Amino acid sequence: MHLAHLRRLAVVGCLGLALTAATLRAQEHNARERSGLAEDQALLLRQLARLKQTMEVLAARYESEGRTHAAQLLRQGLTHLNARGTTPGARTLEELMATARESLESGLSAQSIEAQLEAIRALERLYEILTDQRSLDQLQKSLDDLKAVQKELAQLADEEKQLREETRALRAESATPEQKALQERLRAAAQKQAELRARTEQSARQSGLHELSELERALDELIRREATDRAVLEALRRPELEALRAAQPALDRAQEAAQRADRLARAAEELEHAARTQRSDPAGAQRDLERGQEREERHQRVSKDPTARRTAEALRAAAESLQKAGSEAAEREQAAQQMDAAARELARAAEEERAASAAAAREAQRQLEALKDPESAAGRVAEAAREQLAKAAAPSPGAPPEAGAGSKPPGQEPETPAAEALQRAVEQRQATEAAQEALRRGREELDQLQKALSASQSEAAREARRVAKNLSTLPQGATPPGQQAERALEQAAEQQEAASEAARGEQNEAAASAAAAAQQKLEEARAALQAARAEAAKAQAQQPGQKELEREQQALAKEAREAREAAREAKLDAESAQRAEQALEQAEQAMQQASQSLQQGQNSEASSQQEQARQALEQAAEAAEQASTPQSPEQKARAEELARRQEEIKQRLLALAERNKQRPGARPSPGMEQAAQSARSAQRALESGDLDEAEAQEQEAERQMRQAERELAQEEEQYQKLRAEELLFKIAEEVRALLSEHQKQMAATLEVDQARKGSERPTHTQRLRLRKISQAETALAARAVEIQKAIQAEESLVFAEMLGQIGRDLDQVGRELGEAGEWQSGERVQYLQQDVERSLIWLAEALATEKERRRQQNQSEQQEQDQQGGGENQPEEERLVPDAAELKMLRRLEVENLGALDELRTLHPELEEGGSVDPLVLEDLGRLAHRHQRTASLFQKFRKRLGLPDPETTEQ
Fold it and tell me: Considering the entire predicted model, what is its pTM?
């Protein structure tokens, strides 16, 4: 059985249900017809059970065979069969069919039709899932269609790239002489600024100022971090944490009592419901009671809860009394009264437990009342728990629920005491569970925070010592301010270690005090480091080369001012002129600041300001470059031609996107539509002469097309994988079938040979049998050649060679068994058959191993995708049979050839002695020589494929 059969079963189910529904409409009032239809419905239900069982078996089989796609379809179908919808009262397909049958038996035709229509829709969805299975021909067609789309998309992306390059060339050509001069001037100024920055930075490194600035930045970050840790430690007060722990026992009692109330009220409601329904459906009422009893007994066995024992006994007693009542109305009425009484008793007990829960919740509330400081971490946790506990502190037993505390609107109140008790018990349980969760989550977060603070302070101590060590390696570390900074850093590290230890022991007050002391020492270190840097900067300002750097920077600032004037005269459009003006103003300001920093010896700050100036100059140059628009009639004509070509690309792209959507099983590819939108924007920009915008949109269109190409390539890889999976399965099946049929012919050959008893000439009957065997082996040879062609097309050289040799050997066997071979059936023919059998077994084993490898690879890839959250993880492209498997088989073949040659030499010593040799032996020897030659040739092909040098060219 296979997926096609499953699809037929699904169709039969749909037709059967549809026929049932149609017949029901016509025979709604005919009881005999309803009975027959109910039997038909039961038959469909049994067929569904067999369908599910068959799908389970097939899924396991396909998984073992490596047909992962087919197995996934079956698993998806099983998931669909067992799934319920998200709407209230949703049912599985099996439940829908059962409901339809029960409704028919009860005469509820309308309800049965409704259930059957839902079942038909579910079966149609199952059919859609299973028909996603694609054959080799379908997969190959899908691949061909996909490759055609890929090819055209790549061509369009290349055309878009060419269009962008031509647009860029037109933009450069359209610039006025003033614009070109401005661009060159700004680029040259930016280059000078970059060179000056490199010299300034080198000077800062030589003087140690750069390192001092880096240390000061690290120290600033350390102070900020210390202030944060200190604030958090001050918010974590030990008495408050202990208060949180103290509230836990009362909250536990509240939750346990609420759970008992819920269990008691639920059992009461079940008893009350059974008392009502036993009049119309005694069997259903008894089933409900027995199910409830089983549930309570299971809970009691696991939890040893006496409340569960009590509810189980009450439900058991009710079920037994209902069973004893039988069909007598008076006895059933008496049983109903007993159930009502038991329900009232359980409801009262539930109210008592609910009241106990509320009292415990109020106690927990009181214990948390002391934690009201919003600045306290524990206070925020307590507030979250108090909000839930307020809902759990319900009114006294018997009172109606308060508005806003889970009460129902008018007209929706429960109609029975047990239902009312259950409603209040459920609300109580939910409120206590929510309070418990809020307190648990808050305490866990506080515990994690304690650990994080301890680790943070420990890491901060290491960082403080690192800064101190780096300072000691600089010349400024030997100065009095530098030594003072080192001492302060060491003292800060000691305080941070103390804070880490205190936080680990939850001594948060001590930890906060140590953190405050560490922060003070760090600030002292920063002040000392700033003093050391000021002295170093003062000394740097007196260096001979410093004045030269300052003069060059001032000259560049003057050049930036002149460039601003040139920009005004360059006839830029309004937007580009404004951007260039702003960028040059920023460059000039940054240059002036850099000049002042150089004058003060602050080379590290000057280097940063110089980089800002360089970036501003680059921005101004880009603004000048983007201002180009076509000027001459020739340039405008070229822009119009580019716009026409862009329109053509856009139209072809839209058509291709639509064609891609029509492919069966195509994945969504929004990149094509987005690329078409960018192409449309580029076309409009070209038509308006905005070459800069046109180039930007063309670049975006090309980027989106390349992205769509990558998405299609990923889809192609998946198709290739599915195709290889199906092809491997098909070839493995063919090889197994070939082996099985060949073994039958081997047995037949042996049987005929034994019947001949060494006779030279077979009988007429034996010749007929040999002719039949010969024809069968010749047909198998043709099948082997067909398989060889299929596997050779996948570049599996060794496996294809083996199948070719099998085909040649089977041809020879067929000739020798027939009239042309004089009806041979002896040892020689049987040896050839055994040789073929051995090769087929090797092939079948290798293919089975490869299928198992692929199955495990698919599982590991799926697990990796799940761990990465569904990220992209496309499999690497590989051949149907990988090189490693083929090389192993090649080695096996050569070892077999050498073994057969040794055996032939042992059996026929005349081969080496030079005596007369049987022509048949020489034929066998030639056959082995041919195999060895083919093996050597295959090995040479593998060497070339893998890029390995020939043995004679390998360097020694």
Answer: 0.42
